[in-house]
Amino acid sequence: MFNILIADPLSEDGIQPLRAADNMNIVVDTGLKPEELMEKIGKFDALLVRSQTKVTREIIEQASNLKIIARAGVGVDNIDLEAATENGIIVVNAPNGNTNSAAEHTMAMIMSLSRNIPQAYLSLKEKKWDRKKYVGVEVKNKTLGIVGLGRIGAEVAYRAKGQRMNVIAYDPFLTKEKADNMGIGYGTLDEVLEAADFITIHTPLLKETKHMIDSDAFGKMKDGVQIVNCARGGIIDEDALYHAIVSGKVAGAAMDVFEEEPFTDHRLLELPEVIATPHLGASTFEAQETVAIDVSHDVAGFLNGEPVKNPVNLPSLPKEILNTIEPYFNLSEKLGEFLIGRTEDVAEEINISYAGDLYDVEVAPLSRNAVKGFLKRHLGDHVNDVNALYLAERKGISIHENKTASTKGFTNLISVEVVMKSGKRSVSGTLLNGLGARIVKVDGYNVDVTPKGHIVVINHKDIPGVIGKMGSLLARHEINIATMQVDRSDIGGNAIMMLTVDRHLDEKELDTLKELEEIYEVTAIDL
Ligand SMILES: NC(=O)C1=CN([C@@H]2O[C@H](COP(=O)(O)OP(=O)(O)OC[C@H]3O[C@@H](n4cnc5c(N)ncnc54)[C@H](O)[C@@H]3O)[C@@H](O)[C@H]2O)C=CC1
Ligand SMILES: O=C(O)CCC(=O)C(=O)O
């Protein structure tokens, strides 16, 4: 008999697949305080949550019997994935079940903003008949800027077109072809921010997207812009939003999600320009039933030995495969991470090749790992070895794997190449006996860098003095250089410099390096 804890309210119809299984003892106990959950979790085999329950490392470490955590919804930022993985607990989610509801809620927010419906309703409830104060704007022919064109962003785009809005979107995986097929425009983040009358955010909350909409971003928007966040709190900097509204830059904001939830006591809520709902994007009977059905099937199936459909992490691999390739896992993922840092255009193809010792080994898990490293910068921690190839395909990136017996001077070599419309980028790495992983080639140049920490890659003209200028500029920013590598195509031709430095370089610091006329390109990559 398996003990199942449902810790947040889930649709009763949706959990029928669990109730139907005859070896499940289901306990519904919602609204537990963290310390109560910590005390109880030890006897459960499965934990089902929505977004309220925070499944922290402390809780996971008390969960000695826990085998699976199921998130009835998309975002898994309330679950410590690293702790779950470390403790061999699989995490599953329900990525598709609430897409329509979240898109519909977003449209409701856009319409409410444009016509002041919540404000007018409150005024009428106070027995005021104020028809002048609440004159709105039509959305027809207005431009909707969508940031993040995944499942929900795309559904919002289709609905907005139905309202005869002009739609323009930014997503690192959006190509012109895809935008053309959807009948929408596409641009960079700045272009979207500059063009839009309404802006709606649909990205996950990641290191990259935290405070993506800050005071700089508001500065780029049209005066009188209206903004909606039904994705995750923290993507919009709430203090910057407050000031943008008070200054008159932003005419209205609709928020379903907040940096701290529950969100009941905040100066934003006192502004009449702000309308808000308490994280209701997925709160429909249909969505709740579908997500509960999806996770119930995965939990019941998994506990009975079947593979899961929507894994978010993957705790283990068969031992015999793991033993041979485990040493290359970190390297393959780091190569993917390095490459996305140098991918300035939409990726169309990723080619992964293996040489030397890796010729007759099962390398598919390493390829998945490299693709995972490549994708996770934009798709977040729900990319794992299981779903990496599927997600790449969904983003229109084809993956090719090949092997060669030629050692190219290395006992083992993994090379990852990305093909974009604007060209190719590549990186190769090897595992040196006793010395660990090394990046040994970048775009064909020979280097020798440990794939770890803060790396700066500089493409420059091979002329005297560049290294010195670079060193002085970094010193001016008080950035210490730990290692330095240089290589060149030919004397006086193109050259590359790879530095490892002691801290992250911000955009402004990078810009000062780019100003040197001998420099073609500078990228900073944190591994
Ligand atoms: N308010 C609510 O109740 C609900 C909120 N959500 C949230 O909505 C968000 C979107 O969910 P889905 O569409 O299902 O996810 P998805 O994974 O299908 O789409 C996210 C998209 O964001 C893009 N992206 C990542 N970084 C970006 C960046 N820096 N700039 C622009 N685009 C970027 C990705 O390429 C991807 O296409 C998530 O944060 C999810 O947790 C989802 C359901 C309900
Ligand atoms: O469970 C909920 O109501 C929240 C849904 C959500 O935010 C998500 O699926 O990411």
Automatic annotation (TrEMBL):
Keywords: Amino-acid biosynthesis, NAD, Oxidoreductase, Serine biosynthesis. It catalyses: (2R)-3-phosphoglycerate + NAD(+) = 3-phosphooxypyruvate + NADH + H(+); (R)-2-hydroxyglutarate + NAD(+) = 2-oxoglutarate + NADH + H(+). Pathway: Amino-acid biosynthesis; L-serine biosynthesis; L-serine from 3-phospho-D-glycerate: step 1/3. The keyword ATP-binding does not apply. Its EC number is 1.1.1.95. Residues 455-527 form the ACT domain. It comes from the Bacteria. Belongs to the D-isomer specific 2-hydroxyacid dehydrogenase family. Catalyzes the reversible oxidation of 3-phospho-D-glycerate to 3-phosphonooxypyruvate, the first step of the phosphorylated L-serine biosynthesis pathway. Also catalyzes the reversible oxidation of 2-hydroxyglutarate to 2-oxoglutarate. This is D-3-phosphoglycerate dehydrogenase.
